Amino acid sequence: MKVGFVGLGLMGAPMSRNLLKAGHTVKAWNRTKSKVDAFVADGGEAASSPQDAAEGADVVIIMVTDSPDVQAVVLGEGGVVHGMSSGSVLIDMSTISPEVTREIGATLGEHGVQMLDAPVSGGVLGAQNAALSIMVGGPTDAFERVTPLFEAMGQRITYCGGPGMGQVTKLVNQVIVAGTMAAVSEGLLFGAAAGVDLDAAFKAVSGGAANSWQLENLGAKLLQDDFAPGFMVKLQQKDLRLVLESAKEMNLPMFTTPIVHNMYRAVEGQGHSDEGTQAYIKGLEALAGVKARSEKS
Ligand code: NAP
Predict the structure, then answer these.
(1) 139 with 103: CB under 8 angstroms?
(2) Domains plus CATH for the chain?
(3) Residue 47: pLDDT band with limits 50, 70, 90
């Protein structure tokens, strides 16, 4: 297929490469041009604007940060809507508000363009290995048409319902991920305070009922004092904000998520916004006066 791609960040860079590897033609735009130059070096085409990326494309994929960013690159001046032809499909793979998703989809519909929301889980590793879990909302005929693109980027592709339901599913994912990270951190800190060999404790519990993606991947990293992202604290804050905004709209009580959101605020206050979400432990350590890891010198 002829694909326009907007957003070559930590996720978009490997995802766009996997589309090339699967034999699709990909023309990409990124706000910071150096990332487009690297994409061209890997066999892609350069676009001079989101609109240019969309000209002549069957499908346009967006992978930027937050709701206002998607609105800007889709509907703003030079946005993809000005280049997309009637009958083409826009796939937004960023994690944004379900409500804003539905608004953008309605505007695109006036131009004869179908929209799918298709946020992902699996992190940078999942993006590199074409092993993402992709959660899709929107019209089923569009979903069927673009499934080969999803298959080039992911392993588990799930149709979750109408417009916005991919984003809702992603927020379910984030509630679970955030609560698990808090539990992993608290468990390891408890072990450290009680004097256990944390490497032994990690080995034991990651082979039992307490194991999870968060423990196996991020627990292991934080024990090695490795706080490189992965998934940045500031992006998790954005996602938990989206969860809490939706919960407020629904008058739904939530208990764990607000605590994790506040702890990450403390972690951001400590200057760790751009670190991976395993930096949660730094907030706990500061409160407890106990370290769960030996810091690198
Ligand atoms: P990132 O590395 O910070 O990349 C963000 C991308 O969006 C960059 O290409 C950036 O351009 C572009 N961008 C942001 N605001 C823009 C604007 N207003 N106009 C034009 N371009 C803009 O983030 P990421 O990790 O790739 O995340 C992208 C999306 O995937 C987010 O919604 C995130 O929540 C989601 N996600 C991330 C992960 C993960 O593990 N990282 C996992 C699942 C889902 P520049 O290069 O110019 O900054």
Answers:
(1) no
(2) 2-162 (3.40.50.720), 168-288 (1.10.1040.10)
(3) very high
